[in-house]
Each structure stands twice: as structure tokens, then as C-alpha cells.
Amino acid sequence: MVAGQRAAAMATVMAATAAERAVLEEEFRWLLHDEVHAVLRQLQDILKEASLRFTLPGSGTEGPTKQENFILGSCGTDQVKGVLTLQGDALSQADVNLKMPRNNQLLHFAFREDKQWKLQQIQDARNHVSQAIYLLANRDESYQFRTGAEVLKLMDAVMLQLTRARNRLTTPATLTLPEIAASGLTRMFAPALPSDLLVNVYINLNKLCLTVYQLHALQPNSTKNFRPAGGAVLHSPGAMFEWGAQRLEVSHVHKVECVIPWLNDALVFFTVSLQLCQQLKDKISVFSSYWSYRPF
């Protein structure tokens, strides 16, 4: 009698488990066939909007990229003022005034008319967005995902591109002072910059930043302990380096910046897209907890 009751109970449990498994398998098939594609469409729409922010077309669809003027400002100093003109991923013009701290002499320098300065950070971020869109477009509505692993692999690949795009805007390159001196940016101005000035331009989050370094030469008989500075986004006064036959020290640092609204939009789109990718990955992963084996 007891054995029969146990067998009946076991059969009931197995039947319930089989029914539950059937329901879960049906839900999982719906997730693969329907919801995944809905999320992919949503991701493509968001990333196309992000891509449009980077292209900034002119009045015609085939026209040149429009120019945008941004006024440089700083809450801490009025030593540097100016206007930067951005055209897509390039600085097409720069007009800068620098008031020298020691004698209040006013220096004015601007880009030569035949020069543009490519902002590699913007170019790289745009390329990563394009690669993410390409990955998503390769799985159109007619494509049938057969396993959760396929979806996870695609989401990981898309997230990698989006993370790289975001990091290019949020993490400026660390450069040594000799690298800044050799970058070529200082040779783009007319009149030519004085030999005791270095200039660097970079993107930090949604801001375009301009840094001007004033230098002075260390005398050969200087008692200062010469220690060349390493790489940094922003060097501080007192940083030393060797350039040519001279040993130089940074005496003053002036940083000014301006907000680029469409870069802020792009960063928001990256964040929302990464969240969508992670949510889809989480849904796929939830199903694995219901089975002792992994059907995906």
C-alpha cells in the first residue's frame, strides 16, 4: 500500500515537472523567435539615432558636414578665451586668445586656413557604433535563433563595440609631454606658436577640451632634480620633460572646455543600448536555472 502511494506520488511529480518543462520550453521558443528580434529592432533604431549624431549632415543629404562653433570657457580663469569650430570629427577652425600671466601680454593664434585637426576619439566612437549596427543588421527578421547561446554571443559582440565607443569618449588618451610636442597640433597655427607653448585638444565625456601649457627652460646648472613626467591626460605645473637638446618644465597650465550637446546624446544612447543588451542576456540566462542541463 505504502509503495503504491509512493509510486503514484512520484508519477504525479514527474507529470507536473514535465508539464512545467513544456511550458518553459514554449516560453523560451517565443523568446528566441519573437522577443529577441523585437529587442534587436529597438537596438538598431537607437544606434541609428546615435550614428546620426556623429554624421551631422548639412542641409542636403549629400552635402558637406555642417560646422558648429563652440565658445571656450572656464569658471576658474579668463587667461584663455576662444572659439573652436567642429565639423564632424575634425576641428576645422580654432581662434584662441591667451593672456600671459607674468606680463598680461595678449597672444592670439588661429588655425591656418588649409589645416584641420582630426579628433580620433570621435572617429573611433563612430566606427564602433557602425560596427554594432552591422552586427545587428546581420540578424534580420528572417533569421531564426536556435539557441540562447547564439543570442548571448551576439549581445556580447554588440556590447563590446558599444563599450569601446563609450570608452573612447569617456577616457581620453594619456600622453607624455614629448608626445604632445610631436603631435603636430602646435604647427597648425598662424602665426606660429611661441616655442614655450604647447597645445592639446581632446574629448572628455561630452566636452571638447583645450589645454595650453606654458613652459620654461631649465638651465644646465639648475639644482632641480630632473624627473621626466610620464603620460597623463592633464599635466600639472612642475612637470618636466626633455625635447631636443633642452630640458623643460611646465610653469602654467590653462584648461578651457565647451559642451558638445550631441556627444551627450550619444552617451545616453550608448547607456540605454547597453542596458537593453544586458536585460536580454539576463532573460536568456534565467531559463538555464530551470534545467539541470542547458538546452541553450
Automatic annotation (TrEMBL):
GO BP annotations, alphabetical order: bone mineralization; brain development; enamel mineralization; gene expression; hemopoiesis; locomotion; locomotor rhythm; memory
Domain of life of the organism encoding this protein: Eukaryota
Cellular compartment(s): Cytoplasmic vesicle, Secretory vesicle, Synaptic vesicle
GO cellular component term of the entry, any: nuclear envelope
Matching Pfam families: Rogdi_lz
Stored InterPro entries: RAVE2/Rogdi (IPR028241)
Family note: Belongs to the rogdi family.
Name recorded for this polypeptide: Protein rogdi homolog
Organism name: Balaenoptera musculus
Higher taxonomy: Eukaryota, Metazoa, Chordata, Craniata, Vertebrata
